[in-house]
Target: Rab GDP dissociation inhibitor
Amino acid sequence: MQEYDIIVLGTGLKECILSGLMSLNGKKVLHIDKNPFYGGESASISPLQELYKKFKVSGPAKSMGRGKEWNVDLIPKFFLTNGELVKILVHTDVTRYLDFRVVDGSFVYKAGKVHKVPATEEDAQASDLMGMFDKRRFRKLLLFALNFDVRNPRTYQEVDPNKTTTRDLFCRFDLGLDVMEFTGHAIALHGSDSYLDQPCLETIRRIRLYSESLSRHNTSPYLYPVYGLGELPQGFARLHSH
Model:
């Protein structure tokens, strides 16, 4: 009987990253999962019949087409191109098992209209999400975030990143409420407004990450696996199957 250094229960993304990194370090890994698919709670379900089985409902209807043509993410997500997960994918060479595409763009809903989040200088100039003066102020904030280095107090511009709240930071740059909302939710990707009264360091990091990710492709900062999120844990699992 073969002996293993580690047994991993489940094939969620965290479990597969753990087992992949362990196998890269020469460990023998056994993966066990009761599900017929990779990914755990963040799996991509295919064929479509498996999704209906999972939620114990009848279907799918014939009008849905061939089940194998569907990949349904249980928890849909995009990845920032300069984010930690993408860096891990590149470092472990899991990218050889995956195909990605750049998402065409991102959008926000405001005042009854859908607006494209500006991705280029031309987009920003044409966008009606901000007025002309707001665009100048927002640009100053963006430059501040890009030049900010937590290890170099000279880049702080009299902002204490661990004490100054994000609300106070936005006020320093004289941002209007609309621009604050846009920056906090469409750029820094906060899920609520609680960040406004918290130290601004995390928001500065998020704005910087978004901007650096956007600079990689100039159309969108987001990547997505062509065949669904379930490909990610499957890719890591393949590291210890070779």
Observations:
- The longest strand covers residues 6-9.
- The two ends are 19 Å apart (CA to CA).
- The mean pLDDT is 88.
- The longest helix spans residues 201-217.
